[in-house]
């Protein structure tokens, strides 16, 4: 009887088959050789480096409160909220005046996360992706009012 797998391959045509008789031999299971993965991996997600030296949650909250109080807000001027997504996975939301500069955001991040002071990092907008290179621009000039910034 021809197995169904071979009949499907033949599609109604002829099947050529070579057979050998091994009935008088004892079956020996072939040894399988373990071969570890030899390819290379691809990292998904951000290309930002890992930030080492994370502090305790209490210390982190104290640093964020200190950084927030270091930003001088003029209540008589227009105010905006900036959300900052950090390379370590954290998120900060801070109020700024429209006249604050991108440099002030960078200083706020370094105050809130002192471990990041030792590493260089860039600030980018989310959509459209644009690197914020001119740190002397005001938030209004850079069109960052109520924006999300990614470190």
UniProtKB/TrEMBL annotation:
Keyword Transferase recorded: no
A Pfam family recorded for this sequence: UBX
UniProt keyword Nucleus present: yes
Subcellular location: Cytoplasm; Nucleus
Occurrences of domain UBX (ranges): 75-151
Gene Ontology CC: cytosol; nucleus
Keywords, ordered alphabetically: Cytoplasm, Nucleus
Organism name: Eurypyga helias
Gene3D superfamilies reported in the protein's UniProt record: Phosphatidylinositol 3-kinase Catalytic Subunit, Chain A, domain 1
Database matches in SUPFAM superfamilies: NSFL1 (p97 ATPase) cofactor p47, SEP domain, Ubiquitin-like
The protein, known as: NSFL1 cofactor p47
Domain SEP per the UniProt entry, residue ranges: 1-28
Coiled-coil intervals, chain numbering: none
GO molecular function, one term: ubiquitin binding
């Amino acid at each position: 009887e021809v197995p169904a797998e071979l009949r499907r391959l033949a599609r109604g045509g002829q099947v050529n088959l070579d057979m050998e008789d091994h009935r008088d031999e004892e079956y020996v299971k072939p040894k399988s050789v373990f071969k570890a993965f030899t390819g290379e991996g691809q990292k998904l997600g951000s290309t930002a480096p890992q930030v080492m030296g994370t502090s305790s949650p209490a210390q982190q909250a104290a640093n964020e409160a200190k950084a927030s109080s270091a930003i001088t807000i003029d209540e008589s001027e227009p105010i905006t909220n900036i959300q900052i997504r950090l390379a370590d996975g954290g998120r900060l939301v801070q109020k700024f005046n429209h006249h604050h500069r991108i440099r002030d955001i960078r200083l706020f991040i370094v105050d809130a996360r002192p471990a990041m002071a030792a590493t260089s990092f860039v600030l980018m907008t989310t959509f459209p992706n644009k690197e914020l290179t001119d740190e002397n621009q005001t938030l209004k000039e850079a069109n960052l009012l109520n924006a999300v910034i990614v470190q």
